[in-house]
Amino acid sequence: MKTHYYLIILSILFFWGCSTPKEEPLQKHADYPISGVPFSKVQINDNFWLPKIETNRTATIPASFQKCEETGRLDNFLIAGGKMEGSVKGEMPFDDTDVYKIIEGASYSMSTIPDPKLDDYVDSLIEIIAIGQEEDGYLTTYKTIDTTKAPAGWCPAGGRWQNLSCSHELYNSGHMFEAAVAHYLATGKRNFLDIAIKNADLLVSVFGAGKNEQVPGHQIVETGLIKLYLLTGKKEYLDLSRHFLDNRGDSSKRELWGPYNQDHKPVTEQDEAVGHAVRAGYMYAGMTDIAALYNDGAYENAVDRIWENVVTKKIYITGGIGSLHDGEAFGENYELPNLTAYNETCAAIANVYWNYRMFLLHGDSKYIDVLERSLYNGVISGVALDGKTFFYPNPLQCDMHYHFNSGGSLSREPWFDCSCCPTNLCRFMPSVPGYIYAHKEDDLYVNLYVQSSTEVQLDNGSVKVKQKTEYPWEGDVELTILPQNKSEFTIKLRIPGWSVNQPLPGDLYSYLNPLENKPVITVNGEKVNFDIEKGYAVLTREWELNNKIEIFLPMEVKKVRANEKVEDDLGKLAIERGPIVYCVEEKDNPDIEELQISENTRFASSFNPELLSGIEVINTSGNSTNEVFKAIPYYVWNNRGANKMSVWLSEN
């Protein structure tokens, strides 16, 4: 992090002054039927997620801040505010958001690990952001600097709110809102929040019924406005979020932009995932928010239909979505190529955001099944183990000829002209602990199995939970229940779909070899029978201090077959163990193109703490030499250099 930005700030503080705190924002109220336990209230101490989150804090976030400095993303705010001379720097109309997203990730990190030096640095960046904001609250630096110059060739130049299909002005605002809320909640400071509110108030004055009827070209302002509403209680933010969604696909007041922007028909009439996958994922998350906040059946039915389409026809075994490089978009039903798969890292993250909201709305574990598959495979494959290089797309095959990564690379890269994925990982990784637990009245949900602890307030009192496990490598989980007082409540333990012979809901993927064992649960050492409701083992009883629950999930290697309508996977099988999808790399298998799997292929797995930061390795044996190979988790591929890779192997 360069010091010259601190010097610039010191030189202008006298003129800028310090913001005066306004009235305290309202606290978030209940909106979904189920409430998640915030990541800041969950302490994880495992060997899988904790190192990754720490790498994000100590490597990814600092490196990304440095890239923003080096590439002029911070300079643009100073140029826009007249504190630096020059023209627009950077290649994209949304470069401002990279700064916002890293601040969001840094704020999340500071929520769990205080860092005064980082706190001061973020404050200095917020002062720079404030310089770039126009007097009425407008904030998109490239427009302020020069309306006659477009930073990207695919979007025409123009003044405010012109070319909203591609200008990303509202997208920039959305990421700013999300980051500002995160920063306020982490620090209690209003310096960034006041900038965001000023911009949101401008949007409210410009957009809406009888005003500017345009909608965002790239969605996320919808969820950003909702987060601002939940923090401030200003309903006009919620109303504008809904207006943007309601107006989509309505040709009576504006020209439609078509399927690429999910603007081909009203959102409540949509039933298929189409167009740009990240835009879509953020929109579906916003629609789910509206369904919950308004108790709106039309919105709920729409997201249910679209979700069904994605999960049964358009998702990869890795949890990736958006199969096409062309338009970074969803393909047709069952169009899931492997070599040319796009599967943008941002799309996998958006898929997690959406599916968690679907769980909060419906309370069904199938949404966590999808979330978990994306989380352990399609998201973390996007970043190298050292946290410093990244994939933009995440293909399921590499032949060393098709240059799949952004910029034409065959390896992860430290930065891109369009660096939405690295900065999205910055903000996403610290939030992972927030997906583990949830609660509703006297129900405590355990969604993900991660060694961790938390305290949850149920109707009958406070309950501490301690979770001990080596998941995802081992299927044994121990929960220690510590209620404040002896009381009756319900613990709902997610039974992962993969542990009961269902890779994902629907028939897109199936196991060739059904699991021989079933999940087992004991309470205080005694095996218990349990009912399964919406994918959860339901344990209702009077719980006492130090009651112990043990869950035994069968960690067997499974062969996966895709639906016959997926042409690229015909005659092929994949393998997975627990929530982890595996692949083969040329590094381990020089004859990778000859490898096969048959019904007779046998598997043996073992943990290697020295390989790729510690992974469970699968070795095979069979009736032919082509069935003898070594497989590693998909998410770690390409960490030993560029080489051939495949998730799907020919079936012998």
Keywords:
652 residues; alpha+beta; Immunoglobulin-like; 7-stranded antiparallel β-sheet; 15 helices; 18% strand; globular; disordered N terminus; hydrolase; Beta-AFase-like_GH127_C; Beta-AFase-like; Glycoside hydrolase family 127 protein; hydrolase activity
Would you write up a description of this structure?
The protein has 652 residues and is of the alpha+beta class. Among the domains are: 437-496 and 520-552, Immunoglobulin-like, CATH 2.60.40; 557-651, no CATH class. It is built from 15 helices and 24 strands. Strands 3, 10, 16, 17, 18, 19, 20, 21, 22, 23 and 24 form an 11-stranded mixed beta sheet that branches. The protein has a 7-stranded antiparallel beta sheet with strand order 2-6-7-8-15-11-12, with no helix packed on it. A 6-stranded mixed beta sheet has the order 1-4-5-9-14-13, with no helix packed on it. A hairpin with a 2-residue loop joins β6 (452-458) and β7 (461-469). α2 (49-70) runs antiparallel to α4, α2 packs across α15 (420-428) and α4 (96-112) runs parallel beside α7 (169-187). Mean pLDDT is 95; it is low at 1-30.
